[in-house]
Amino acid sequence: MARKKNKVKVGVIYNESAPEMYGSKAQTESGDLKFIPYFEIEHQSPIDEFEEITRFLCRQGYDAYSFNIHDSLDKLLDHLTKEKPDVVFNFVEVFGISSRYEMNIAGIYEMLGVHYTGAPVLTLANCQDKILTKKLLRSSGIQVPDYELVSEQIQHLPKHLKFPVLIKPAYEDASVGIEHDAVVRDEKRMRDRVAYILNHFKQPAIVDQYIDGRELNVSVVGDEELEALPISEIDFSEMPAHLDKIVSYQAKWDPHHEAYHRTIPICPAPLTVNLTKKIQKIAVNAFRTMNCRDYARIDCRMNKNGDVFVLEVNPNPDLTEGAGFMRSAEAAGYKYAKMLARIVDSAVQRKLRSKI
User: Fold this and answer.
1) Alpha-carbon dihedral 30, 32, 35, 41, rounded to 10 degrees
2) Number of C-beta neighbours around residue 329 at 10 A
3) What are the beta bridge partners of residue 340?
């Protein structure tokens, strides 16, 4: 792959171990659903998205290409050695069957001296450790829900918590392990849920105080200088009574689940100017506390008293056009391609500063 003259070479690197599955998977039409969908059900594969990102970057003047490492370290190392990209747009979130290896891939870039987009190694590690994240945020004066880390079965709810509580795995991300059964309101359900997390995920469970209130997502972009984008709110007003008002795994990722179509984003969120500034300030503080870089999304809940609790800090969030992070970017006036270019340019500027 020859380098184009005077162009920054950007490797859009991702990991899909079985890309053939996207071509053979049976598709469910919206008419087969037992509810009226709010969103159009699309069937674009992640690989298509990476190819599209590559095309957008090429139009922005980069010498961009995409590369699937196919779950192979040898393939990744050989590729980086031969192709020598100026910058890697890092989309590797899982290696093998574990998301906990995400930080190791970033570590390989570091050891090889390859500059890459998004969060550095320690940030990826720290943000995946939800208890450590809570402690670090609290140390910066940021409110988080009260919690208890549980590594073995408990019989009674800890006294500093009260029902309802949300029970989730301690070391997962992307809402893995957060289904609608995660919110429990009595001790029997609590014991069942804790047992499920311990046995199924083979890791401790977090018993989180459930915050009844508005769900707000704050996207932050930048490296040395940060910009908080317009706040997006999840509207739960259409959520049916049998589903809790949370952004579950199904609500995020399963277009054939009712929760996906009953968590409606509103961006910008209907907030006063003062509240908007307050929440954005908290998000920027969380971004800096966790040492995020280039782009991140901070998920919050605000109760009826106006108290804001940070639920999650998400480095390297999903960049699907029109969703999540990019929804807020578009509300701020950024075209999709321009925001992609801004993220890449942030990594390019780090590379240039490292040579000074």
Assistant:
1) -20
2) 26
3) none
Residue 305, classified by CB atoms within 10 Å of its CB into exposed (0-12), middle (13-18) or buried (19+), is exposed
Length of the chain: 356
Do 9-116 and 119-143+213-231+267-356 come out as alike in CATH topology?
A: no
Q: What is the pLDDT of residue 33?
A: 79
70: left (phi over 0), alpha (psi -120 to 50) or beta: left
pLDDT 10s digits, 36-47 = 777 676 667 889
**Domain-by-domain residue ranges, the chain?**
9-116, 119-143+213-231+267-356
Reported in sequence order, the residue ranges of 192-263 that DSSP labels E, i.e. its strands, are: 205-209, 214-222, 226-228, 232-235
Quick check: 146 and 163 in contact, CB under 8 A?
no
- The DSSP code for 309 is E
Is residue 263 scored above 60 in pLDDT? yes
Q: In the beta sheet, which residues pair with residue 268?
A: none
Q: What is the pLDDT of residues 160-202, one digit of tens each?
A: 999 999 999 999 888 999 998 999 999 999 999 999 999 999 9
Task: Please name the CATH architecture into which domain 9-116 falls.
Answer: 3-Layer(aba) Sandwich (3.40)
* Nearest by Cα to 155 from 118, 128, 192: 192
Higher per-residue pLDDT: 147 or 44: 147
Whether the Cβ atoms of residue 129 and residue 111 lie closer than 8 Å to each other? no
The domain over range 119-143+213-231+267-356 is classified in CATH as 3.30.70.330? no
Cis-peptide into 317, omega within 30 deg: no
